[in-house]
Amino acid sequence: MSAMAECEVAMANPGVQAALPELNLMLARHGFEAEPLCWREGRVRGRHEDWRFRSVFQPVYRLQDGEPRLWSVEALARVSDRFGGQLIPTVLFAAETTPRRTVYVDRQLRCLHLLNFLLQSPPPGLVLSLNVNAQHLVNVSESHGQFFAEALQLLGVEPRHVCLEIVEDAVSDPVRLHGAVQRYRDLGFLISLDDFGQGASNLERVWLLEPDYVKLDKVLMRRALMRPALRDKLTELVAILKLHGAKVVGEGIESEMQLDIARAAGCDFVQGFHLARPADCLNWPVSQASG
């Protein structure tokens, strides 16, 4: 059976299909589209005004005994306009100037990814990693995490199998951001700090949020590849992050040499095109799953 055929067989999940109308009702309370999520071509697709959303997934591997073993998949949004033009998701959030719209789009994307993840019958214990814009967490006025906790309960998913990746962004209220992250942690979610090494990221953000994981931005791996003198500094950075209680993910692994650099630096996990590219449908190597 081909990979696509296996994927289509796995899509037959009546529990997920039954939950779709209820999730649409929850999202519709924001006052935008009545049915923002729909079935198309065997998958769940999303929409907001002129924008159309779909999910792709990229594996994250644990470096166990030096060898990569599947630990998580990161859900990524692919955004297009009604004419098929592509848009980078970060640009989409930058264009959303009102807090209400930002919260709505963020929640819709998380529900979209969750449904498409479950439709593929992932192996038990596999973690789903979801990007969350830091500004979204500041914008939410009600109890943080309540909406998504209800969505997970509807689908029978435990929060401990979901890692929320806080996308690095400058926020005006770091205390409020800390409170939001702590609320998610209290609900049982794993917390990751994404894109460390670029933008607003710094050790102060690590001290503030105390994430379970820190994902090194791919630019650090590129610099370590091009400038061998920086590899010792990368090892020192990984050690500092671990002293703060975080496990470290090396992103942007695009070659075997970069994989070796990540190993030597002490990274706990790795992710990148050399290991697997983002895809609509994944074949789960159950024997490699590592909780």
List keywords for this structure.
disordered N terminus; alpha/beta; disordered C terminus; TIM Barrel; 291 residues; eight-stranded mixed β-barrel
Task: Describe the structure concisely.
InterPro entries: Cyclic-di-GMP_PDE-like (IPR050706), EAL_dom (IPR001633), EAL_sf (IPR035919). With 291 residues, this protein is α/β, with parallel strands linked by helices. It has 11 helices and 11 strands.
Describe the fold and architecture:
- This is EAL domain-containing protein.
- It comes from Chromobacterium aquaticum.
- With 291 residues, the protein is an alpha/beta fold.
- It has a single domain (3-288), classed as EAL domain (TIM Barrel).
- The protein has eleven helices and eleven strands.
- It has helices at residues 3-10, 14-28, 89-95, 99-119, 134-139, 146-155, 174-186, 203-209, 218-226, 231-243, 256-265; strands spanning 37-40, 43-48, 51-64, 67-81, 86-87, 127-133, 162-167, 190-196, 213-216, 247-250, 269-270.
- An eight-stranded mixed barrel has the order 3-4-6-7-8-9-10-11, surrounded by six helices.
- It is globular, with a radius of gyration of 19 Å.
- Residues 1-11 and 286-291 have low confidence and may be disordered.
